[in-house]
Amino acid sequence: MTSPPRPSRCVCVVGPQSTGKTTLIEALADRFQGKVPVIKEVARHVMQEKGYTREDVDSPNRERRFSLQRDIFTAQIEMENSLLESEWTSSFLSDRSAIDPIVYLTHFAGPDESLRITSTTEWKIIRGRYADAQKFLVVLLSPVPEFLVDDNTRYMAKSLEDWHSLTNSFRGFLDAQRIPFIEIGEDCVDLKERVTLVLNQLASQERDGCRLGVDGHD
User: What CATH code is assigned to 10-208?
Assistant: First the structure.
């Protein structure tokens, strides 16, 4: 299979746990035949390195909740910057983004807590990056019941309602921050179809010089 042209835009796949983000990123990386660098799940590395557990996501300890997501946010940005500032690449594939820890913080600790990040100059710069249709494609994956698997590391939804509520928090945050995105969920569960949808979106952006999400977000 011939690999598609290397994209001039970065692809960030975001959303709640167990929605197929890693699987989609790995499939996209395979299609590009290793020609596009991949940022693997930063959160898992940060949790292992700094001794966080999934209980810290909704911990009653305010500072513990905040420091977990802040550390993930910082590590993600450092990874992105290291690639974008290099001379050999203008794009990457990312399993999650700096958006994810902010949404988790908002959802489980409230908007006042996430404001501690979103009010910073650093976030304003990063928000502008994600909102730039010429440089980024944000893909939100929403719940598919058969995908929900407990890996004993990541936070697990306590119910389907909890899972969908977190998805709504992602949608609300992206809309509020005016970050365009496309959404893939139960209407498209086949991995090949998901990959094709993203590649077609990238191709249309390359052709038209703009982006319009499948759900009409612009």
Answer: 3.40.50.300
